[in-house]
Design a protein that fits this description.
The chain is mostly helical. The chain has four helices and no strands. About 0% of the residues are buried.
Amino acid sequence: MTMTSRVIATVAASFLLAGTAAFAQTTAPAAKPAAAPASKMAPAAKKAEKPHTAASIECSKEADAKGLHGKERKKFRSECKAKAAKSAKTN
């Protein structure tokens, strides 16, 4: 083997080893903050904060009975809960 061949083989091997070493090295994951801001809480955590009111449950039952889904359900429940709140204030 000639000297040039050995140099080329050494350079090629070093490139291969350097390439796999670069892929093998990873950085440590960033530490997560202990408490997340309230605006970025998981949906389950938000539900735990606000228990369902009796009016909300009744409105959901009515929406189920009518077979409402999606935007129609959301609109119906919003109007239903507003009516319930208004009638609760007058009583």
